[in-house]
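Appendix B: complex inputs.
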Amino acid sequence: MARQMTGAKMVVQALKDQGVDTIFGYPGGAVLPIYDEIFQQNDIHHILVRHEQAAVHMAEGYARSTGKPGVVLVTSGPGATNAVTGLTDALMDSIPLVVFTGQVPTFMVGTDGFQEADTVGITRPCTKHNWLVKDTDKLSETIHQAFHVATSGRPGPVLIDMPKDVQFATGTYTAPKAARTDNYQPQVKGDLEAITQLVELIEQAERPIFYTGGGVINSGPAASQLLRELVDATGFPITSTLMGLGAYPASGKSWLGMLGMHGLYEANLAMHGCDLMINLGARFDDRITGRIPDFSPRSTKVHVDIDASSINKIIPVELPILGDIGHVLEDVLKVWKARGRKVNKAGLEKWWKKIDEWKKVNCLAYTNSEKTIKPQYALQRLEALTKGMDRYITTEVGQHQMWAAQFLGFEDPNRWMTSGGLGTMGYGFPASIGVQIAHPDALVINVAGEASWLMNMQEMGTATQFRTPVKQFILNNERLGMVRQWQELLHGERYSQSWSESLPDFVKLAESFGWKGIQVSDPADLDDAIMEMINYDGPVLFDCLVEKHENCFPMIPSGKPHNEMLLAADADAFKEGATLV
Amino acid sequence: MAALKIKKGSSSHSAYDLRDSHSQIESSHTLAVIVDNEAGVLARVIGLFSGRGYNIDSLTVAEVDHKGHKSRITVVTRGTESVIDQIKAQLGRIVPVHEVKDLTVEGSPVERELALIKVSGTGDKRIEALRLAEIFRANVVDSTLESFVFEITGTPEKIDAFADLMRPLGLAEVARTGVAALSRGV
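Resulting structure:
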């Protein structure tokens, strides 16, 4: 039986029918009818943020850590424009989000009304798809379609713009099952002939490598499981992008660590020297490839991706496979097993010997100090003291993010939330709140730099209000560390605007919001301080005063190939003005 | 480890790989894009071209299936083979896009464009314009004592040629529809 209800009620009903229990939002004039409905029910928990950008990042953290879409509700005009950074971030990192925005009434659209913005126009390039709903009868079906689009194929953010009169008016509610979704059905099964060719390559390769990305995580836990099975059964080495960490466990025997600009020496050299590269759900980002003409020059490249536009976009590949990673891996395993589980054992043995040599370079080595806390050391201690805990890590953007990726080990997918593609400073803190909302009993730590963290510090109030015991692990070097590093190495040590001036007293700041503040500067006190942070039942602002001039290595300078990495030892010579030959 | 050859403080290094764009052969492709005729769909297609830096040489759009609310967008674009492939893949990613056909790859398509061309003048020039119009099978759709409006249909090249001939004879204004195209055969 068709049910009649107001547009505002439809929003709440559709969310319930989609299984949504949590939304992140901020009220305003153009969404008041929906907030009125939210007030009159208890099924959907609304998290009141302090800024709309943070609402989107929270939803991203929620989505990334659960595999479910994140839902956001904000008002028209500034509410919508504030959400744009988060939408772009989610689009770049393929995070499923459904964002609802209010809009001025339909008869006012186009008149420059109060808090009017062309939301669908502004967000068209930063959403996977968006809708302006002008008819209440179409609202509920559009919402169901939005969830379908956000979560199928390559996931991404979608937005529904709802004029206020559409929310007030009464219309017919469409249930999820009755909603038309057949016009968007991306292909998930890979071509079996291509998969058989991949298996042939696997059987013959002398120097193979798996290069995995966020697509494995997005495909779901089953894909990570299948990946582990395939990697362990073949004995092939595996590296991952920043977005893919956790799909294969860091403790796994085939794990080479992250690749790319600040990736591990052995991972990058293996990518450069391989004869078979199997890209699973990664997109040959410029932070990965370095100089394109010199990228892995002697390898046969296979690219499995659900998005046809990612294939052959940057790096032409010999064998493209369009499909969902989980489905493709299942078929690869089936065919490979049926053909007798063959690999080139002799070749592999030699290849691992070579990789073990590269590992001996110990590329993450740094000079520790007894007087000041080195950021790498702080992360090593954090890793050691939280190992085995039910732990989720988010990060901001910069040096600390790369160190976190290098020094923290991820054993499972959905445990690592970071802004990869867009590189959004200010992402980590709200994301950590979103993660904590989804996993109330877990240990959620945001590894941050002080400059990034300040970008969304207003969310301290949100954390207090909703009792999220998030731990803000700030590696405070009083610098915009990554900017400073580039200025040191590539801009003649002219440190233009890269100091964090006028920093707050983080301990007092914490206390003013009812948090716990901890400051530590002596390496000898670090372990106790970290344990105090972990054991405190509530949000903690951990101000870790670290070495101010530490650089993040290894580093592939832009425009250089993988085999021209800069290690910490080379950097000293580099700094002294030597031209490295 | 291989050598690093960048100098300290070198300004030639940015956060991005500033490589020369490879000079490869570009060719023109006519694409037919079948879309749901919904609000903003043309903006999505055009936004994709401008946002990703692709060329549009010609673009036409109209609803071709009123019952199914389907529109056909015909885009003439230029690029290297890899850029054309990327354009097609990116178009295919837009949610209301149903089909992307590369008519150029399918075989030399039938392409037609319609133009209205106003020529003003008197005396010999006027007579010459009329004579050339006959040769090009252009119709006179409006006439005053000092002007003609010709309607001409053909390939873009034919229309270019006609407009060029009209220039010394008093070409005043040109309106063109852009290319409509279909593949040959079934």
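The longest strand of chain B covers residues 110-120.
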